[in-house]
Amino acid sequence: TFIAERYPRLASRAVAGIQRMGVDWVREEFRADHLHHSANRPYDFHRYDAVVKRERQAGLHILGLLDYNNTFNEHQRVWMAKSSIKDLTANFVQYATAVVAHYRGVISDWQVWNEPNIGQRWRPWPDPQDYAYLLRSTYLAIKHVAPPDQVVMAGPTTGLNKNAVLFALRVHKAGGSFDIAALQPY
């Protein structure tokens, strides 16, 4: 649904509509660059907290989508550069840890990244080993902060890459740690 990220002012109407449809799960995107506006400032959960509270009060389960990196050394923070994967992963883990700690006991399912097999998110190309490294590092951090929480391997999309299942298998083979695997069959 991405209510908090895309249209928080419509949350009450959106949640009511979701309930009328009989849906009991929603996905909320927690973008690092929208929560944390500079390297030395605290995270700002204000607009997310109100929507998450409304969704939980409505009995909805939330899949928290942790995506995009938390560094301010790059002009765009929506992709990971292979040449900086260790530093970018460390920044991402710091951000993921802050989000999971903030919502501990409220959100218990976390998707790490989004569509890790498309070129818009990885430079110079999507590499299952790089995503496995990010996934494993984030998994360990989440389990340290909230051991019972479930970690979801981001769904590779089939829309731009017909080898999505192969990508997911390669992530697993490269040591990507997760509890649940997702796939986005667009």
Describe this structure in words.
The protein has 186 residues and is α/β, with parallel strands linked by helices. Helix content is 41%, strand content 15%. The protein contains seven helices and seven strands. The strands form two sheets. The chain has a five-stranded parallel β-sheet with strand order 1-2-4-6-7. A two-stranded parallel ribbon has the order 3-5. Strand 6, helix 7 and strand 7 form a beta-alpha-beta unit. Helix 5 (85-102) runs parallel beside helix 6 and helix 6 crosses helix 7. It is globular, with a radius of gyration of 16 Å. The chain starts with a helix and ends in a 5-residue tail after the last strand.
**Poorly predicted parts:** none
Measured between the Cα atoms of the first and last residue, the distance is 16 Å
Oligomer: single chain
Structural class per helix/strand content?
alpha/beta
Total strand segments: 7
Helix-strand pattern: HHEHHEEHEEHEHE
Relative helix content? 40-55%
Tell me the major beta sheet. 5 strands, parallel
Please indicate the percent range of residues in DSSP E strands (runs of 2 or more): 15-25%
Number of helices: 7
Computed CA radius of gyration, to the nearest angstrom: 16 Å
Main sheet strand line-up: 1-2-4-6-7
Shape type: globular
Question: What's the mean pLDDT score?
Answer: 90
